[in-house]
Each structure stands twice: as C-alpha cells, then as structure tokens.
Amino acid sequence: METIYLDNSATSFPKPPEVYDAIASMMKHGVNADRGGYTLARETGKVVDKTRESLARLVGVNEPSNVVFTPSATIALNTVLFGLSFSYGDNIYLSPFEHNSVLRPLYRLRDFWNVNLRMMPVERSELVYNLDELNKEFKRNRPKLVVVNHGSNVCGLVAPLTEIAALARDYGAWVLVDAAQTLGTIPIDMLKQNVDFLVFAGHKDLLGPIGVGGLVINNSTNIEPFIFGGTGVESKLENMPPEYPHRLEAGSLNVSAIAGLLAGIDFVKHNIDIRERKQRLFASLLDLLGRYPEVKAFASPNHQTRLPIVSCTVAGYTPQEFATVLDRHFNIAVRAGLHCAPKAHEFLGTAPLGAVRFSIGAFNTERDIATVGEALEQLFR
Amino acid sequence: METIYLDNSATSFPKPPEVYDAIASMMKHGVNADRGGYTLARETGKVVDKTRESLARLVGVNEPSNVVFTPSATIALNTVLFGLSFSYGDNIYLSPFEHNSVLRPLYRLRDFWNVNLRMMPVERSELVYNLDELNKEFKRNRPKLVVVNHGSNVCGLVAPLTEIAALARDYGAWVLVDAAQTLGTIPIDMLKQNVDFLVFAGHKDLLGPIGVGGLVINNSTNIEPFIFGGTGVESKLENMPPEYPHRLEAGSLNVSAIAGLLAGIDFVKHNIDIRERKQRLFASLLDLLGRYPEVKAFASPNHQTRLPIVSCTVAGYTPQEFATVLDRHFNIAVRAGLHCAPKAHEFLGTAPLGAVRFSIGAFNTERDIATVGEALEQLFR
Predict the structure, then answer these.
(1) Shortest Cα–Cα distance, A322 to chain B (Å)
(2) Which one of B31, B206, B253 would you mutate to disrupt binding with A, by most A Cβ within 10 Å of its Cβ?
(3) What is the ipTM score, two decimals?
(4) How far apart are CA A55 and CA A57, in angstroms?
(5) Domain boundary among B208, B237, B270
(6) Cα dist. A248→A52, A226, A369, B328 in Å?
(7) What is the CATH number of the domain that holds A152?
C-alpha cells in the first residue's frame, strides 16, 4: 500500500522525476564548482550560475550575485540575523508564527544585544494581521527589523507582506521574509514589495532536494559573514571576500542539490496549475475535517492566499496518538507535535502537545484526500 | 575522451555505484528524519542512526550521539571553533597547512578573544614536524587548543597526531583534528590517540556525496551551539536542546547525503586495498614528475603515511596556465592556485600564485597516471 504523504511542509515529497534526474546526472558528472578551472568544474559552475539567475528572476531581483546559497533555510536565517548589526534597545518585530529557525536566533540576539522582540498583532479569532494596530506599534516602538513569516507552517496563514513591508519602510526598518514555506507557491517580488532579505528553502515548494536553501539580498547593508572557510577565490584574504555571493558562501557548494533545485524551479514555473490544484484538494480536506465534531481544525480562513496546511486537535487522542493511528492503520503520513513553531501553538491554544498537521503537496491526488475521509469515517462514524 | 580526474582532494570522483544507489533510493523513499513519527520518517531516521554508529566505530568513540552531522566539514570546524570558550591571551596552535576553513575562523577568534595563534614548528626541508621544538613551545606558551591538520591538501603531509596529542594532553589542551583529507584513508582512534574533537568531510576519502560532514566529540566540554533552529525535539526550549547531537543539529538533516555517506563508508571498509593502490599510483606519479627538471614537486617524503597529493610548479607556466594546458589538450583535471590553504603555499615558497595539484582517488588507474606521463613527455621532451 502506497503511503499517503501529507507532510509536505516538512519536505515536499516526492520530487518531480526531472529533479531526481538532474541530481543523479550532476552526481555522476559534476565535481566541485569552479570558475577558472578545468572543464568539468566549469560546467558544474555554469549550473550554479543558472540556478542563481533562475532564483533572481523568481523573486524579482536584478543581480544573480545577490542570491547566496546555503545548505538550508535555517543557515540562511542564521546568516542574516547574526550578520546584521543591532544596538541596545533596538526593536525587532516578529509574528506568533515563527519557526524555531527564526525564534532561536532571535532569542540569542535578545540575550546578546538586548534587543526587544515585539510580536506583531494578529487577531486570533479571524487569523488576520491587524495592520492599524501594527502601525501604532511601529509609531510607539520604531522597528529596526521586521521579520515576516510569509506563510505559517502550522496554520497556512499568509502574511500581508506588501502592507507590512510598506509600513516598515516608513520607519526605515529592514524587512526579512522567511519564505521557507511559500517560495514556489506564493509569488514574491522583492523590488516591488520592498523586501530587503528573503530566505528560501530548496526542498519545500520549489520541489528541490534537502541540502540547499538560501538568502536573497536587496539591500546595501553589508551582512557580516557568519560561516568562515574556503571560497575558491581570494584565498589569501584573512577575512571572507567582500563581495556577494562569496562573502557568505564558505566551503564546497552542494552542486547536486543546486542542480536539483534548478530542475524543481523549472518544474514549478512550467506547471502553473499546481497552486490551484493544491487549493482545491485543501478545500476538500477542510470540508472532510469539518464533518466531525471530534476534530478541531486550525487553518487560515483566507481562501485566496492561504497555504494548504491545517493543524488539528482530535478529541480522545493526543496529536502523537492520532498521527500514529493514521500511520499504522491507514498509511497516512502526517506530522504531530509543535512543528518547530511553539509560539504558533501557544497562539492557537494547542500548546504544549501541539496538533496533527496535514500539508498538501504538488503530487497529492483526490484519492489521497478521499483516503483521509475514509479514515475519519472509520474512526468517528 | 574520458576525463582523467586528479582533483580528488577537492572532492572524490566518481563515487562507488553503491553510493549513487543509496542516494537515489533515499531521495525516492526518504523524507524528513524523525524518531517518533510515521513509518517513512522513522525508516529515514534509522539510516541516520546507522550512519552515526558506523562513524563512531570508524573513529573509535563509544557513543553514536557524539557524532554530529553538519552540511560540511567547514561548518563542523566553525561549530567547534566558535563553540569553545577562550580567554584573552590563550594560545591556539596550528600548522602551516591549515585550510581556510580553519584559518579564517581562527583569525576571527584572534580578533574577538585576543587569542594568540602560534605555528607548530615544521622543518621545511624534510617536511617533518619538530616535536622537540613543539614541546619547548608548549612549555613557553601553554596551549589551550591544538588544531592538527591531519593531512595537508597541498602536499599530503600527515601530521604525527599521536605524538602531538600526547604532548597537548600534558598541558591540558584540547586537540581538534581536521581530518577532512584523511578520514577513510588514515586510521584514527580518538580514544587511544587522545583526540577531543574530530572534523570529517563526507565527500572526500569516505566517498560520500557533497552535503554532509560532521564533528565527533570525545570531551565533556560543552560546545555552545553555533547554528540555531528547529530540532524536531524539545521545540519549546528557547535554546537548542542540551544534549548531543540535537544541540548542534539545527534544521532538516540531509538524509540522502547521509545515506550516501553510509554506503561510502561501507565501501571503504570493504575495500581495504584502496590506500595501497593509491600509494602505488602516487609513487608512479612522483617518479614521472621527477623526470623533468621543469617540474618542481612538493610532496611529503614519508612513504608510510603520506596522502597521494602533490603540488607542482612548472617552469614556463603559471599554475593556472599549466592546469589549462592539461585540461584542454589532455583532458586531465587538476586544480591550480592556492587550494584554500594560503599559508601552506607561503611555507612551501609557492605563494602567491600557488601550484598545480594532482590528487589521486580510489578510482584512478595506472592508465590515468600513464596519460599524465604522456602529457609531460609531449610538453617537455
């Protein structure tokens, strides 16, 4: 029996065949990327350059060299958060939906620089950002940095990025977008939307493999290097080279993962119906979950822009128990717990045990959702 | 015409077929690793556990949880160097052979903590560490940390680890071994050899893919986390979880790379003649290079323990020019320049242009070396 995979927020699965092929081909033909070196290394370097260009176009920046590859979105977030300079008392705004890859570096900044971490106001009942209140907050406590969780990995809420960034701009604040859950699904234009820094994960909605993420820079503030090592260029320098991307790329690039990411982005660009299909399946899923009073579902009510992610609590089961039942008896793979976003669960009232999360990917089918329906029917009829 | 690949110090290439298969299989069946989750995630987690166990056995430590996976050796080195605490005036010893993944973090520590960076004495003419002199140095300037470049990526010199670590132990210093170039070729036993911290690269002599490296810990000093993010466990904590490996593993593990690494380690363990074959080919290569007065070769004279790596300067060519000639006319892939080890080239007298490096891997053949011979004959006869 095939597993019904509904854990696409953790990592999208499966990947398009083109992605597997690109990775396998790069593994067998590619070596360490290099600009000036031998033919194999140069060919490898070209794939890296093409991927930078593809990402730059995707997020609306002009300079591919402002696309920095990191091994993960986590490392990209650490790179930008620890690479910016703060002063005692600076205000950093965040949302209740931040992942631990944002929260934990921010706690560190709080302890180190004595910055204030301030929650952006979100209406709990309607799951909507209160922009008037936010503006007042910004007026009271001028923002230095606004971290925007572009899409929640717990409830699928998509932040009103354009509006938040416009407000932040009025106060001269940096805008950092955590697009780990959204890039590939929700369009973004860093220039038009006034985004200074954007972090992406290669292995989620861009359909690439685990092993590559990155940071896109649209701001002239120099980010201090966070990881130090070989760059293949300017090796004599004691510091990292001053220019992007080398400044922030220490060590061998994961060229196979980058080749897979390029294929994933191409697939996403050529299959523009993915988002609509996911939204349709998601509506069916929410409809099914809504039939059972035992199930309490937490999802964004915004049909237009939400991500197809819902977290549920289920009467009579801990989240872990319910996930285990779905796994063992129905071969349905979902993720239970806090989803590395403890504040989101506090906000939703589902802490400390968390919830069971269903997240839909590009390759889920109506049959998958129907199987969830059958499982619910068997468990609760 | 097949490329003659002699850049195995950058990354070993090709990998054993088993490695490609393990990666492809994990890509198609594996998802995010997880202990308590659904079947697919648990199966993935088991491969991660097995790889930890395999590595622990390989380096002689008892606790697999002391094997920390990082996306690269560079990040593992940054993790340990920035995770230890130093005081003003502490002495950190290093060798002239350090890679920029050691040097650049050390320069940072020097600037931040005011530690003293002290070169271990190496006799230039014989390429041998002067242990008597080192002992005197340690007496004069007590070491806090000794970084041992286990094998040079420029000249193949293997450090006398046992002796250096024994001396360091007498002074209560930490011993950090950069085994990026050696693990898989030179045996190591962290317990017996008194090694506190060992860093490995998955994609070099262990024959795994780019995308995984790590740190092995054999010391009770707590390494402060360097990268902060999701851990899948103890998500409520503001800090990283206190226990290894979670403490130092933020974000999704690269499970495909880890599966490939496991297959690579298995291959190395089952093909115990690799080292001898490489040494034999290396002796032939050195013999060929020695025939031409135009070529000046820098390699360790220690037949027993050296790595099959040689850097050359060639009369009438810059290193880059010579590498380009080998690439264009003979399809021989070698690496020119400073090899991210600028101090090594200063030491050898080959700075600032560096040299042309030949490095032999598990799959090179006598035919490959003969082709180098033919190239030299054509160029210099």
Answers:
(1) 11
(2) B31
(3) 0.96
(4) 5
(5) B270
(6) 14, 7, 42, 32
(7) 3.40.640.10
Candidates A209, A228, A342; nearest CB to B104: A228
A306 with A158: CB under 8 angstroms? yes
Kindly report the CA angle at A104 between A193 and A318, in degrees rounded to 5?
A: 100
Q: Return the SS3 of A54.
A: helix
Structure tokens at A376: 């619910």
Closest CA to A137 of A74, A83, A94, A187: A94
In this structure, are A229 and A371 located in the same domain? no
Angstroms from A357 CA to nearest CA on chain B: 12
> How confident is the model at residue A35, as a pLDDT?
64
What is the extent of the structural domain holding B145? 17-270
Supply B188's token pair: 């190591």
Interface contact B104-A11, CB threshold 8 A:
no
CA B291 – CA B377 distance, rounded (Å): 9
Question: What does the CA dihedral A363, A77, B211, B220 come to, rounded to 10 degrees?
Answer: -130
**How much is the mean pLDDT over chain B?**
96
Beta bridge partners of B336: B356
Residue among A367, A359, A7, A338 at smallest CA distance from B42: A7
pLDDT digits (tens, 9 = 90+) for B263-302: 999 999 999 999 999 999 999 999 999 999 999 999 999 9
User: Nearest by CB to B32, which of A11, A31, A36?
Assistant: A11
**What's the structural domain count of chain A?**
2
Candidates B280, B267, B257; CA nearest to B184 is B267
Whether residues B336 and B213 fall in one domain? no
| Residues A214-252: tens digit of each pLDDT | 999 999 999 999 999 999 999 999 999 999 999 999 999
Q: Do A3 and B39 touch (CB under 8 A)?
A: yes
- The percent of residues in chain A predicted with pLDDT above 90, rounded, is 95
Residues of chain A with C-beta less than 8 angstroms from the C-beta of B94? none
Q: Which of A270, A287, A314 is the last residue of a domain?
A: A270
Strands in A67-70's sheet, in edge-to-edge order, are: A67-70, A213-217, A197-201, A174-178, A143-149, A91-94, A116-119
pTM recorded for the entire structure: 0.97
| pLDDT at residue B35, as a whole number | 64
